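hey so i finally got around to running the thing on that chain from the lab meeting. sorry it took forever, my laptop kept dying and i had to restart like 3 times. anyway pasting the input first so we r on the same page abt which one it is
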Amino acid sequence: MFHPIKQLAGQTAIYGLGTMIPRFLNYALLTPFYTRILGLGEYGVLTELYAYVVVLLVVLTYGMETGYFRFSTSDKEKDRVFSTAWISLFITSTLFILLVILFNKPISEALDYSANREYIVIFAVIVGVDAFSTIPFAKLRRENRGLRFAIIKLVNVAVIIVLVFFFLLFVPRVVGRNPNSWLQLIYDPDFGVGYVFVANLVGSTISLLLLLPEIISTKPEFNTELMKRMFRYSFPLLIAGLAGTLNEALDKILLKHLLPDEIDAMAQLGIYGASFKIAVFLSLFIQMFRYAAEPFFFARAKDKNAKELYAQVMKYFIIAGLMIFLGITLFIEIAKYFIGPKFWMGLNVVPVVLMGFLFYGIFVNLSIWYKLNDLTKYGAILTVIGAIVTVTVNVIFVPIYGYHASAWGHFLCYLVMVICSYFMGRHYYRIDYPIKTIVLYGIIAIALFIVDKLIQIEKRPLELGFNILLFAIFAGFIWVKENVRPLIFKPRHE
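ok and heres what got predicted. didnt touch it at all, straight out
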């Protein structure tokens, strides 16, 4: 019989094509490019506006993605649930775009973008299109059509990358050499970073067009009663998702408002945003895992050994997360080249941000207790608690310690959420996680990280060899302790 852990790992790998690889391409190609061609302040603009996008996407999807999975478990109801969900999102996304266009001036002034009001309109359309696309993408996940999911995501990022290099590298060079080139008709050097947003808009629009077969294959039907039930289930997820997203994005939104006036806030935001990007690799893994794990958890909920399976998933997830943590922190002298040298002063926040992401992934695993029992209101409460921690740490400490306080706020909010969720979950849906083993692995990983920081080796080849040794010690310990081989290789008798 195919081992459930292998099945989840396989699905995670497939969805990695559609989530991790596109984002990694964005990370590996565009982040080095942006941090070398854009100034600190310009990269700060990117960091801030995309933080708003993350928050708005949660608001405009209002938990419908998880609601769709929850109510489409019956094949008889799946088409009606899908149709009701996408019609609802289409209406709200369209209204959002129209309202932003109508009130563009006051919104731009409130965000300090009066000189670039077109940025706000472009972002409104991007958010609206991406929000509406959520349910067709969820349909692909429900139907285990991971390959199509991956192809559309890859097309999206390919379009963005090509257009970014075209507008920010190719066109300026051609126009610089030949001012009479026809390209000057489509290029305005003053628009600058705005071309990044145009590229994103085109990519999102093409993705939506590719998703049309999923949309039109289902007869349009909006069931009001079903929508009410879905909304009652999903609304707490909106609150939870919003609070959770604020935990991830609020530091970037608040930073420029909390720093003293004598500090170049956008430059500091750019440094923090670039350093954050190095840690995003772990976030990509978590997102990839979440796409595969959510339908997996629901599908396995009625198995007699479901709780034991969830406990094993948690353990292996943490092992993978710790290996990513060590892989980045031990080899930070290599990883730092993904961003421009002018941003390196912020590298000391990377380990803190990584650990914050790891605890976020743990929280994603723990959340199964309230999702399976329709207790999503507790998920909302937990993430609101995390948001309170985020706001408190940022408001009190950012004026003193700058973006370093933002990094610690990111970590502390998820730590508090994990502790609260763990003890609440033991009451409503007790899962006996292998806590002692997990803590042991965490201690070993942190100890190896500290050893690396305490022992300074000047010669780069020797330092690299030492770091490889430290990583090998952790990987070897896991290999022996967990007897990993049977999980990776098929036993001969199968």
